[in-house]
Amino acid sequence: MLDPLTQLANRRSFDSFLKGNVSASRAAQVNLSLALIDIDQFKVVNDVLGHAYGDRCLKEIADALRTSLRRKSDFVARLGGEEFAIILPKTDADASLLLCEKLRESIQDKGIYHPGVATGNVLTVSIGIAA
User: 82 an active-site residue?
Assistant: First the structure.
């Protein structure tokens, strides 16, 4: 149920948690938000700097995601590769947008080196939200 590299929940755990929370949110008629996070141009990191460096980046992003969640009901998982997800029960679109924008900025502000020209040599993430 845990991803061995990041120690976040894995895809199987994510699928189970999401299914249960969608059902509970519908039954209680409360908001539920889902954020999908992808590290931008991550293949370049592994190709240029190697997988060991890429693994360190994944761990650092996982730590940032884990520490960004304040409520026990919030859930973060590594879906695979450089993809992560956050499930935010009882959270509407506006609140999830604010949280994810702060998260995106905090990851960029870490200044993790990325050899990609389009990213200004700083690792960035893209986040999509459904509520």
Answer: yes
Beta carbons of 76 and 66 less than 8 angstroms apart: yes
Q: How far apart are CA 127 and CA 83, in angstroms?
A: 10
Exposed e or buried b for every residue in 109-127, given b needs 16+ CB within 10 A? eeebebebeebeeebbbeb
Q: What is the reported pLDDT for 70?
A: 86
Percent share of the chain, pLDDT over 70: 98
Residue 119: partners with Cβ closer than 8 Å, 6 or more residues away:
40, 41
**37 CB neighbour count, 10 Å cutoff:** 24
Q: What are phi and psi of 89, to 5 degrees?
A: -65, 150
Q: Is the distance from CB of 36 to CB of 80 less than 8 angstroms?
A: no
pTM for this prediction: 0.93
Q: Choose, from 82, 83, 101, 105, the residue flagged as catalytic.
A: 82
pLDDT digits (tens, 9 = 90+) for 52-90: 999 999 999 999 999 989 899 999 999 999 999 999 999
Q: How far is residue 111's CA from residue 106's CA, in Å, rounded to a whole number?
A: 9
